Every structure is written in C-alpha cells, then in structure tokens.
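hey all, quick one before standup. I had two proteins in the batch that finished overnight and I want to keep them in one place so we stop losing track of which output belongs to which input. First protein below, input sequence then structure tokens straight from the run.
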Amino acid sequence: MKKNIKDSLLIKFSKILVLCMVFVSCSHKQDKKLTSFVNPFIGTGAHGHTFPGATVPFGMVQLSPDTRTGNWDACSGYHYSDTSIIGFSHTHLSGTGAIDLGDILFRPTNQEVHSLVDESNKMIPTPFQHSNEYAEPGYYSVTLDEEKVKCELTVTERTGIHRYTFSEKSDPRIVIDLTHELGDETRELQIASISESEITGYRFSKGWSSNQKLFFVIRFSQPMKQTKIWSKQAIVEVEFPFSSDDIRLEAVWEATNENVIQAQVAISGVSIEGARKNLNAESIGFDFDKYRLAASEKWNEELQTIQINDNSEENKKVFYTALYRSLIAPITISDVDGNYRGVDDKIYSDTENNHYTALSLWDTFRAWNPLMTLKDEAFVNEMINSMLAFYKQSGELPIWPLWSSETETMIGYHSVSVIVDAWRKGIRSYDARLALEAMVASSNTTRKGNDLYRELGYIPSNFKRESISCLLEYAYNDWCISLFAADIGRDDIAEKYSERALQYKNVFDGNTLFFRGKKEDGNWTTPFNTYEVSRDMTEATAWQYRFFVPHDINGLINLFGSKEAFVKALDELFNAEEEMSGHLVDITGLIGQYAHGNEPSHHMAYLYSYLGQPWKTQYYINKIQNEMYSNTPEGIAGNEDCGQMSAWHIMSSLGFYPVCPGSNEYILTTPRFEEMVFKLSNDKLLKIETDKDPLKNPYIKQVHLNGELLESMFITHHQIVNGGSLSFELSDTPQNDVEYFLPYSLTPHKEVSVPYVTDDIGFFLDSCQVAMGVATKGADIYYTLDGSEPTKHSIKYEGPFTITEDKTIKMRSFKAGMEPSAISVVKAKKNKLFPTLQRSLVKNGVHFKYFEGEFNKVADMKDKSPLQEGWISDFLLDNAVVEDHFGYMYDCYIQVPEDGIYEFYTESDDGSVLWIDGQEVVNNDGSHGAVKNTGRIGLKKGTHKLEVHYFEDYEGHSLEVGVGVNGKEGFKFQPEDLWR
C-alpha cells in the first residue's frame, strides 16, 4: 500500500513539474510583455463605451480623456469618433449603458478660463489627432494641437498622476474644473485650501449615483505662481473654504526651460484626510516614469495568469485586451487605512477586506463572476464580504451600486448568484448564515413586481413592465438560494425556493412556444409580436428571453413539447430574417435574433450541448468570436458592461463556459488558441491544447482530461481547479454521431407541457368560445370551470366550447409515462359597454399641461403646477422647453363610430398612462425605451373622454397614441380624430 501511495505521489509530482515547465516555456515564447498585446482603444467606438485612459486593476482612479458629455455615447467620457478633448478627469465607468462620474477635470492650456467656456458654461473642447495619441495599460498620452501640450497620464490605485509638457515658452497653465460632468448634476463643490503647491477640496454630485461624495488632494511638482477662482464665468475673491455649485480653478506657473508640470491627484470617498493618506501612501515624489512602470508591472502580472502559444498576433491582442478589460471594474472604494463610505452615507472601517462599487451584476453574474472564481478566490471573498456589508447597511444585497448609493438599475437579485456560485465552489471566507439571511431578504421585496411574483406565481404584465424578464431572473436566483439553503441545512427554505424556481412555467405559451406577458386574469398580452422591442422584456425582444432558464433547460425542453421542437426554435433564433420592430440601442451584435451585444443572449449558443448537438455550439461560438470581437475601436459588439463582454470571450477562448452559475458545470467548446496555460487561483496550472489549428478546425472530435476521455460535453469546476491537461482533438467537419452525458437541469424527468387557451377570453360581451391546446403531442387536457384543481376525473377537453358568463378555468395536461403538467389558470369575464357622454364636439384640439422635473412615473406630476397650459392639435412634444426631464397631461374627446370592444395603445419613451371616461385602460408607465402597451374597454357608439399622461426622463422621447376595434389592427390618432 505504501508503494502505491509513493508511486501515485511521484506521478502527480511529475505532472506538476511538466506543467510548470510548460508555463515557463510559454512565458519564454512571449518576446514582449503581455501589456504590448493590449489595445485600450478596443471598444471606444460604436457603443462599446470603454475608455482608453490609465487605471490599475480595480483601481479607484480611472484617469482618462473626456471628449463629450450628456449623450449615451458619453458613458465613459470618450468616443473614438471625436476629434477634440475637453480635458482629463479622474473617474470613469467601463463599458456601461449609463452616464456618470467624470470627476475633477484637468485642462492644460495657454488660455484663461473665459476663453475656454461657452455660453452654456461648458468647457470648449480642444482639437487633437489620433495619430498623436497612445495608450497602454496604466498609461495614456496625447498632444493637443492648438494648446501645443503633450499630456501624459498614469495612476496608482487611488491617485492620478499627470505630466504636462508645454512646448511654448509662455507660462504653463492648468484649469481644474470641478463643475465638469459627464451626465450627473453637481450638487456642491468646495475648494477647502490652497497652498503654493497643494489644493484640497471635494465634489458632491447627484446623477445616476444619487450620492457621490469625492474628496481630493492635489499636489504639484512646482509651486504655483498664481491661482484664480472662477465661478459663474467670472473671477471671484474668496476666503477658504469656498463652496459653490460652479467652480473652476486656474493655476499658473513660471515658465522654465523644460516647462513640465507634474500633478498628483489623490481621491477618497471618505474625507480630505483620507485622500491625503492615499496620496502619502501611494505617490511620494514626482517620478512619473516610476509610477508608469509600476502600473505596467501590475498589469503584466495579472495578464500572465493566462499564457498563449499561438501565431495569431491579432487574436492575441483581442484576447489580452479582453483580459485587461475584465480587471477594470469593480472599483475600489476603500482608502488605504480601510475606511470607506457605506451606502447609508456613514463611514466604516474594514482593514481585512477592500470594498467595491460599480458591480454591474445583471451583466457580470453570467461569465465575469465565474471567471473570477477561477482566477482570484481571495478577491471573490473580498467582494462577497463587501456585498454583505452593503446588506447590513441597507437591508438588501447590491443590485447595481455606484459609489455611496444603489442605482437600482436592471433586474433580478444577482448578488445571490455570485455568492452561491462561489460558495458551491468552496470559496467561503464569509458568514454563511448572514449570507442566507441577506439572500432571503433581497428576494422578498416589492421591487419590480417581486411581491406579485411571490403571491401569484407570475407578474401581471398589465401591472408591471419587464414582467417576463423579471420573473425568469427571479426564478433562477431562487434556484440559487435553494441550493445554498440545502447546503447549510435549511431544508425548509430550500424546498420553498426550489418551488419558486419552477414558476417560469407560468408564463410559457405553448401555442407560440415563447414566454409571453400574462395579465392578471391569466390571459396573454395581445397583440404579440416576437420581433418587437417589448414592454414585457428587459432590453430585448421575446426571442432574446425565449431560452433564459439556465437552471432547468430540460424543464424548458419539456415546455416546448419535445427536444426536436426546442432544437428547431434554437435554430430559428440564429437564422431569423425578419427585423425587429421598434428600436433599442442595447440590442446589437445580431445573428438572426441572437443579440451578442446584450447579455440575455450570451448563453444561448451553448444550449445545443444540452440537446446532444454540441457541434452547433462549436460552430456558433466560433462565428460569434470572429464577427463580434476585433482589434479595432468598434471591436466590441455592444456595451462592454464592466467586463462581461470580455469575460464571455475569455471563457469561450479557454474552451469552457458557465451557462448556469451555481451548477459547478462549464459547457465545453473549441478553444480559440492551440495552446494556453491558465494559472489558477490555487496556483495549479491548467494546460489547454488542441491537436490542430482551431480556427481551421472548429469542431471537437473528443476531449481528454489528464489522458482520460471525457464522456460529456461539460466539465466540472472541481476538474478544472485540480489542474492538469485538457486536450482537444479537432476536426474540420461536425461530429454529429457521438452521444454524451447531458448537463444539469433542475427537472431531470419528462413532463407534459402547460396547456393553454388559444384566444384571449378575458373580455367578451355576450359569449365567447374557448379553444385549448398543449405542445406535447398525444397529451390530454382536463379542466374545471369552478376553480377547483383539475385531475383525470375532471372534464376532458374534446373540442372548443362556449361560455356566456364569468368563469375561472383551470387546466392540466396528462400523458402516460410522463409527469403531469403544471396547472394553467385563465379567467373569462363578461363585460358591459361604457355609455356615451352627452357633449357636442365642434372644434378639433387637445388640451395640454406641461411640467418639468425628474419623474419616474406619471403620478409624479400629480401634485406639481404646470409651467404651460393650452391647446394643441395632437399629442405633440415639440413645445417642450428642455431636452430631458419633462412631462405632459393631455385630455380631449373622441367619437366612437359603433358599439364594440376597443383596444387602445400608447407607444412611449419613457412612460405613459391612458384613461377613457376616467377608467385606466393602458398603463405603459416607466417603460425602458420606446415600447408599446395596449388595453381594452367596451364602448357605446358616441362621445368619450380620452386622457393621456406622459413623461420623458432622458435620452430620447416619443409618444404615439392609437386605437383598434373588435380585433382589427390599431391606427394612430390624427388631429381630425381629437376634439375639444
């Protein structure tokens, strides 16, 4: 026995030695530092929303040029299409779809402030050429054409380092603009003190982050000759501290032979003293090149965790830029002494864990967070402890935190996914009981229909927007909670949340084979257009949420009625030719209706491996990588989203992807490179190799792990972190004759699909016909009309039948050899017609009231006084005084030509509600983008009052109001249809 143990140890040691030699060999093959393969300009064009400036991994400072403000492509402050620069600010978001930050802007210049500011008090950009611009990890430089200044930027974790070389012999001058904003609203600015070489102060702002407090200490390499404070475009004589909502400071130095000014800008979310500690700890002495080298070395160390041996320089640049981008966010908010500002605006101290903000969880839970569990377990533990501290301060886990606030952006409670995925992988340096408490609390809110989801098993689409997307993501998050609760012995919670995880079935329409908005009476939202940007979805059409049940793909296949139907639907996704109706800037990177530029699609190509067709996964992953990633400014297909777009590319290039975080399984695909060595968090090495060029041979014949043939197209986390060799034998033709074990699904058995009613019966006048169906061939439907639970002893459906009064219909399907379906409930309601109003109509027109303010729903205008009031011809927005943040209340009368059921609609950005005769008919409130919603009402022939309330938040505005009758397609109201 001892001999066997000794032999086993020798074998293991020899494997480790070989892998170490491979890692060293790969390192030697890289003649250049890996930072040389990073192009920070990738994603700065199109809608990637990345920035090219200097930062270090997860640094508090992102020192980068700002080329524009105020519009959607200003989210990172920089867009490659621009040819002028406003200046260089210290905080930026990486690839998000929201605008904020841009704190403490520096503008080197040879002009006074009054020459640099336009009539609207905005800084005037100065020209530059991309040929005079350069960026690498931790460093950025550009020469300003007219100013004739070479600008160089580098950073430490909490300090921005500037070096400006003024070519003219005039006195060097720098404007420090505290007023500058990318998209937020300045609340309070202060210059606390000025000495001959130091400036201190703070900038408090309110924007997407409702509470951002940033303190700063600025030190210069030379004493200033003169300083001027500008406010409201005039020089002001002040005593310090000086506070205002508009401050620009002009600093001037004596000209020298070198004419070089260096500056160090330390920031803190805690205090000026915190910023000073950060400065003293990280940047003593003015040695710009030393800081640049240190930043470069930090990046090179991080990039070396994955070594590539491949001849494609372009593909390596795309890969290492993705690895670089994956390490920019989240942002550290802890000072060097461990102090940080909590979400409750109080100061906390934690000397064991860094705390983080800018967690784009709706995006990153899919691939970025799982990537970090492989790369850096210590960081993952820190991040989770940061999340739990957030819970203790606020009562909920973070959704999308930014500095000292919760933006509440996007849907789900995906902190849960992050914690559970880490926990199940053995990353557990945090309080498990507190984690479960936090997860349960975060899952039991009233946010975005969560209370209705718990009460009804779904979210009525006529009550809440994004009803389908929210429900599907809640169900996945609840599955995660059930796993965690079971692991720590809370079987009661585990059972409850496992049941909630199946509620996705309640909104699947077996007739169309799509998830579909369901009203409170159980009838589907109509009309239903799968290509339309939908109010029921989050940044998506129905196609892009058709397959989002990552925890129960087999259960989803059951709903489609068969594996063949599911495969057909997935094929249709990638080959759909019809263009989507409506416009949403987030839906980009299209292959058919697969939208790689937005995260809900990211797992879909991998689903073929759940269907026994892994060659299709391999084909589409290769196609996506070829078409959606490139070494250009437009080289990311959509918003980078704090590393998720990059993480998808990294994981897919490695050859495995986490379709369902929490399952501990990764679906295999063809690696991007012939040889890669991944140094894992536990310091073990995983060598990934192919026997042929994967770009020419994209199909897998077989895979061996440490010499043993894998009998599945997935690999477990345990197998990966044990290290060793993962070898792919490839082919240039699909391998479609191999059977594999299939990945995890919550539902392991066959189950009948949920039955459905083909037509909307929620609103009828005299009688209606009820027709039923089920997607599972050969299944029988049994139903009740009295609200009782259907069994095989209930009424068997034989064909359409007629009802003439209110009924609650419950249906269930059965088939031998399969589990019965979930129960479907539909209510039928007999309605009356609203009587006509006695009013004579003699003149066309619409009465309006106009409001301004930050509105989240139309009711926010209720208690405000209108700024304008009068008559116009239509539901016009043209006379809005401001570009953003305004609203209207409209009222008029319409003539109904005949008795009948009328279906009104509004299509609006950002929200609208429509009433007929005081009855709410259409609620399209707070929609994300310009989307349509409808509602029906029975009306007598004659006159009826129409009211519409509308508000616009930011970035785009539109309103259309229309009506259809008795099932006919609706038309837009024209001025001649609207009466005083």
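OK second protein, same deal, sequence then tokens:
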Amino acid sequence: MPRYADIALPVPLDRPFTYAVDGVVPAVGARVLVPFSGQKLMGVVVKVHDDAPPPEIDTKPIQQVLDTEAVLSAELMELANWIAAYYLAPLGEVLRGMLPLMAEVKRDVTYRITEVGQKILYQGAELGSSRRSKLSPEDQNREYAVLNLLEAGEAARPGKIRSATGANKALLEGMVRKKWLVRETVAEQRDARRLEKVAVLVPDARLPKLNDNQMRLLAELAAVGGRMKVADTRGLQLPQTTLGTLVRRGLVSIEEVPESFHLSGVHVPGKKHAHEHTLNPQQKAAADAIIASLDAPPAEFKPTLLYGVTGSGKTAVYFAAMQAALDRGKAAILLVPEIGLTPAMAAQLHAAFGSQVALLHSQLSPDERAEQWHRIRRGEAPVVVGTRSAIFAPAPKLGLILVDEEHDGSYKQEETPRYHARDTAIVRARLNGAAIAIGSATPSLESWHNGQRGKYTLLQMPDRVSNRPLPEVELIDMRAEFQHTGQDALFSRTLLEETRTALDRGEQAIILLNRRGYSFVVMCRSCGEKIECQNCAIAMTYHKHGRADDFDDHAKAGQRLECHYCGFRRTVPSVCPKCQSEHLYYLGAGSQQGEEKLIELFPNARIGRMDRDTVRGRADMERLLTRLHSGEINLLVGTQMIAKGHDIHGVTLVGVVGADFALGLPDFRAAERVFQLLTQVSGRAGRGDKPGRVVVQSYHPDHYAMKFAQQHDYHSFVQKELQYRRWMHYPPFTALANLVIQSDELAQAAGWAAELGRFVEKTPLPKVRIIGPATAPLSRIKKIYRFHFVLKSESRAALAEALRAMLAHAETQQIPRAAIIADVDAVHLM
C-alpha cells in the first residue's frame, strides 16, 4: 500500500507537497484535506508512492480523504498539467479553478491560547501591561476573560468566544498580534446538496372527518399527482397548520429531495428558437463540416474556425452540431464570453434539449455550481453552456466543444491561472479526441492566421439569414460637426435625427456609449489636478444620482466617485483636494450621462440602460432583455454589453458614440478591438424584416479600422492589420508574454524589477526580445506598485525557457513567487 501522496495545494508555489497516507489511500484526482501553515487546505492528489521524503522533513498525515474516487478524470488532470506548464501557473491553483466545489468544504476560523498567553494568564498583567496601555479597562477585562476561556488549550470559534466574553474580532486579532493567541483555519466536509421539502399524498389512507381547508389541500395534492413542494402549498392561502395536521393524521408525508435547478432565460413569444429553423445552404454546409469532424479519428484532429457575418445564423449551426453529438451518445460544451449572453442562450437550449442542459458561470451560488458540476459528471446533463470556466466541466464522453465569439477578451483569465479558454478548449478537444469549432463575425487575428495557413479548417458564412442586407453605416466626422455647430455636443445632429425617425416609426434604437458612469474624469480648472483613486493610479469616475426604475435599483447610491479597478468609492469633493479651488470640471461622458441627455431629448421614449451599474446579475439582465424584446423599451443606451450576441428583431438603428477613443491607447491590439466592437454592435441592427442603419460618430473617421468597419470589410482590415503586426513582430507572428513585478512598497517593487533587469542583461536568452523593466501602464492597482517586462519570440519554446529562467533567478534572490505575474499570451499589457 502506498505510504505517501503528493498533493497540489492552492498556494502560489510551483510544487506539490508530500503527506503521509494514514488509512484510506486516495486516488489520483481525488480531493483531500491537509494541514498547511496553520491552516486546513483542500488539495488534489497528483501522485501516490512509497518514496519517503528526507528525514529532516516532518511529513504530516492527510487529515481527511473527501472522495472515494477521483473527481477529476485522467484527461482533466493532463489538461491541468498542460495549463500549469504552458501558463507557468502553480498546479494547485489550476486545479482549484477546475473544481467549483468549495461549497462542499466548510471553512471556519478558531483561536487557541499560546504559551505566551498562558504566561500572561498565570504570571499577571505586568508582562503585557506595556502593550495593553491603549486598551480600555473593559477590553483589558475581555482579554483576560478570553484567556480564561481558552486556558485548557482547546480551540474555540469566534462566535463561542464572543458570546462568552464579549470579545469582538478586532480584539481577538490584537491578541494574535501580541502572540497571546494563534488563529487557525479549520476545514471540514459539508453536504452542499440543495434540498427542498415535498408534501406527498399517502396512498390508500382512510379518510377521517376533515374540515374544508384540509379537504381542499388533499384535493390540490391529488390534482397535481400526489406531490407538491411545501413552499408551493403556502400559495394556496390556507392556514399554516393545515399541512401539519394532515401529516400528524397520516394522510400526507414530508420528503426531502434535491432541489430542482431552474434554467431561467429570456423567452420571446412568437420567435423561433435556433433549433426550429431550417438551415439554409451555407448553414448546412458549415454544420455538415463540423458534424463530419465528430466522426474523424483522433489522428486527423483539426479545429474548425467558423467565420460568419453578424446575423448569418451561427447559433443554429451550433445547435445542429450539438444535436448530432447527442445522437452519437456524446456530450457537448458551448462557451459564451459573457454571463449577459446566457439568458437568451439558456432559453434556446432549454427549448431544444430540456433537462439535459447544465449551466456553469460565476453568477450561480456555490451550492448551485456544485450541483450543476455533479449533474454533468453523472452524465445527467450532456449539454453544458457557460463562460470560460465551463471548459473544465467534467462531461463524460465529451464529443464536441463550441466557442462562440472566440475573439472576445473575456475568455482570457486575468487572475492566476491566466489561461485563455479558447486555446484551452482546443487542447482539451485534442486530449479527448473531440471535435471543436470556434466562431465569430470578427475572428481574432491569431485564429484567422491559423485558418489561412491551414492549421484550422476555415468555414465561411458571408451572408445573413434570408438574404437580409447588412446595415448601412454612416461615419460622422465630429471635428466637422464642431466646426458647424460651435458646440461640443455628445450626440451629433444626424444621430438625433435618425433616432427620432426610428422611434416615430415605432422601431427600436440602440446607442453604444462605451464608458460607465456619468463622467470619467474630474479635473481642477485651476491647477489641472485629476482626482485619482487612493489605491490605483487611475482617475476616478463620477457617478451621478440616477433613476431608480424597476430594473435599475442600484442607482440609489447617490453621487459618488468610483474606481472601476478596485471599487473604492468616495464622496464628490466641493473643492480641489490639492489647491482648494471650487472650479472642478467634469470631463467625458459615460452611459449614465448619455441616458440623462436622451431623456431630455426624447421625453416620450421608453429608455433603458445596460451597463455594469444596472446589470449586477442574471436576474437584472433577464428583466432588461425581456423588456427590450417585448418593446417596452424602445431606446437602449449602454456599454459594450449591448454589442454582444443580442438578437432583437425590432432594432433598426444603432448609434455609436466615442468608441474610437481606444485608438489612442498604448495597445497594439487597439485597431483590432475598435473594428471588432464596431462590427459587432452594427450587427444588432436590421436582424428582423426591416433593414438596419448605423450612425458612427468619430474623431478619426479616416482611420482604416473605421473605414473597413463602415464597409463591413473584415478581409481588407485583416490584411492591413497583419501587415503592421508582421513589421512590428507582434502576434500572430510572435508569441508574447507580460511579466509583472509587484509589491505594496514602491522601492521593493523597483528593486526586484531592477534585479531581474540585470539578470536579463547578462544572461543569454536566445531568440527572445525582452523590453523592460519599465513602469507598467497602470503603475499602481489596489495599493500595489507594478513594473513589467514584455517578452516576444517567434519560438514558444524559447519564450517559455526565458520566463522560467527569470522565475528561477527570482527564487534565488528570494523574490516571492506571489510578487511575479507571468502572463503568457497576454491580451492586455496594462
């Protein structure tokens, strides 16, 4: 029997930890609870063996084996190892991201008395008096009460200590800092199943004399097949004692059953679902090609890139491919970039596949995520839809992976492990021998390049469904607009006129204003000072008190300044914090200001807003989309959330305001992002029977990204953009990584960056160009100072070798691993 197990723990260290097997031998891929640095952590077994560690290492035993068998298959473990190696991420943190099962482990904090605390208790107050002088007499008494309570050496939870002594968390933490107490983390397994009570009619029971309420409840139970949720009985407006009386008399029993998961979504009456459409020739050709790859042998594995213009019916192709996978007894995973896209997709999936669908995204509660994960693993839900983490769904017999809007930056994880879900999906499909198709109306340049050179199979759908025309796009030169009007107006005359015309015809309009808040800079006219976040080197956004309508109940917070990076909020100052001037100036317009101006300009319009302030969860999004589909909202203003995936047939006009500001950002992908955003939001117009029109306001109307977006000419844009990328040695012609060094002390971060810079200067790192160290574009985030290196190479192997060399040198210099972020295939260089 193996005596040891190597456990991967969710800590920023690039190695597993060896523990002694004491009893049950865990399987590789199973979860265990182990002691680690005064805590109890959940880890995943990566190896069992008999190789004893060196004698000087005190090998602790595994505290508890949580699973009788592996919860991660061999294929998922192999995928985790690939992610850890490719993205230079600790394996334990990769595995934690794969397992949304934290709800099954209950974590708590306990406090235990130390030897120092025992001395204070036994030898008197003089030992601690110098460190207790700032405490009130009441708190001093509470401290001794805590020490008395814990005298026996047993650990106690904060609630027990508080109820017995009145000591709050701050007091206990103060005693920890004085080393009188030690804080420990306790973890134990818990049942995360969501249960609900069901009233069940007892068959063949003899009916005694009953009153009217009791007879009515029995009748209701009989009418619904003899089973009813206890919660639903409360809606019958009967006394609460009625059910209890029937239970006591043996006529009804109460059972606890797993709570059913309701796949909510946005259903549009009268509108066909994707699976109900008859595929046109180009859709059928695309679907047939993807379905053929389902039956291809693993040796012929090749991803498919589906390029289809907006409104060409890619979703119907996905559904046909998923049905083909189910017909072959295989599972399918569909990834979408934003939670906001799931309500509409969920409704269509439920209509097509019913209870076979599982949903995975971050808006689910921990218990719901665990429940969905287990449904998938048991094979009850062979159709999985979700955001990037859904790529780790434990689907048995996985046959098909689909990645919708594959170009979207949301697929790149911005925390460790910094994987890209699209690329991870391709690797997982290869490991499974599954088919994979990635689709977009504006494919990323990396994917398009792979399609052009034959690495991917390229499928194209150049026409809209039913031969609907692509919308006509008009570019408005805002420089000329200012010269004609003499006013710095938010909306051009053309956009206002087109909006009024669309509303008068009973149609709907969408206006993209891709900034949250009211104004994104508050500046002093006297000294030029910008009001920045105290935690981040970024200007704070002004949020004005907004309307509190039934879908935006978050607008009641009042006027405030907010940092969109760390969430810090403060009141709006009356004077400049630097020079005390009263002349504060609000620059730039966000979606909140856009909504306010549209209310003034179109008082009879039914206006809604879609941004992160109005849509905080799936219920908000569903409510807003339902109002939009029903026509209750006929003018919608919002950020890029409105540009993605929504299919509202009543929208005939799209306006775009200020989207080209991104062309001035220090980002080699700026032109690509602007082109994609314009193309995607333009695609919201004219998806019904009436043709669409798009009005784009721009201060850079001659830029090639603007011109090609106006012409719906993706191919010409790609050709020109790839030319620039080749000249400047940027992806897709090179591999790229961003190495960030960070610390909460500026001098320390600068020193660590300088040390790595000296290493790079004197160490041969062939085939890799390294730029830096330099201050990161966002030099401080959440009180953390940041410097970075940008690495480029035509060889991925050389790039990985250089990164590992830098990380190894950092370790020799005792630079903490948590202070270094290695972002391979970085999407943002901020």
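Flagging for whoever picks this up: Confidence is low (pLDDT under 50) at residues 546-557. The longest helix spans residues 746-762.
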